[in-house]
Specification:
alpha/beta; Aminopeptidase; six-stranded mixed β-sheet; 9 helices; 17% strand
């Protein structure tokens, strides 16, 4: 749509909602892990893409089964910079915990984990959620991925306190946001829309048109369908800032 192009080296995050298809994962109190993991994964994806300069891919976006090795292969072939596997616990416990591969707690992978873990618990802790801590383990998806990886166990579906939280849409929204913010902080992602001036997008589009960077047809499409792509938003932001300096 725009006649100018953006060429940014973006951090690629692969989100991995656990289970799927015939593999339901943990269940309890009417909650099904595969559904919750996908719901949160989609929200994390959307929040990241709406707020940061980042590329996001998902191992699954629907209720399908993918093997553990298939998930790792997907991230490896994509050349991901980070892999986040989303899960929920069961079998007699409560709280939140995160995992990296065995022996990596004190590595860069562990430092990423620490930032994300703290961001999530900074929210969940206010709700009374138990912090089960940062851990390492020999889980296949974090063992077979070639990039730094973390596995998040977002509360216990079979614990009444945790389950009630997971049934609250506001908690799901905030938890998803905190996961995204934690990833952004760990990788120093740049904000996509830090400008909050009213109507700045419309002003920027109008300015692009006046500067001859948009045809009349493109201008109409942009007004009717404002910023359908993140790349367009980056261009508009940069040009808007340039406009304001004049």
């Amino acid at each position: 749509m725009l006649s100018c192009e953006v060429n940014l080296a973006l951090t690629l995050i692969v989100l991995d909602p656990g289970h799927g298809g015939h593999d339901s994962g943990a269940t309890g109190y009417g909650l099904v892990e595969k559904n919750l993991a996908l719901q949160i994964g989609l929200k994390v994806r959307d929040f990241l893409k709406q707020q940061y300069q980042v590329e996001v891919k998902m191992t699954r976006e629907t209720d399908v089964f993918i093997s553990l090795s298939g998930r790792a292969d997907f991230a490896n072939k994509a050349g991901a910079h980070y892999f986040v596997s989303l899960h929920h616990n069961a079998a007699g416990g409560e709280g939140f915990e995160s995992f990296v591969y065995r022996g990596l707690l004190n590595s860069q992978t562990g430092r990423y984990q620490q930032v994300i873990h703290q961001e999530i618990m900074g929210y969940l802790g206010t709700l009374g959620v138990r912090d089960r801590g940062r851990k390492d383990a020999d889980f296949a998806v974090i063992r077979e991925t070639k990039m730094p990886a973390v596995l998040l166990e977002n509360l216990f579906v079979d614990n009444p306190f945790d389950a009630n939280l997971l049934k609250d849409p506001a908690v799901i929204d905030q938890l998803s946001q905190k996961i995204a913010v934690g990833i952004a902080k760990a990788f120093n992602l740049k904000e996509l829309f830090p400008i909050t001036t009213p109507d700045w997008k419309k002003e920027a589009v109008d300015w692009l048109f006046k500067e001859g960077l948009l045809t009349n047809e493109d201008w109409k499409k942009t007004v009717e369908n404002p910023l359908p792509l993140w790349a367009e938003a980056v261009v508009l932001r940069r040009l808007y800032e340039k406009m304001k300096q004049k």
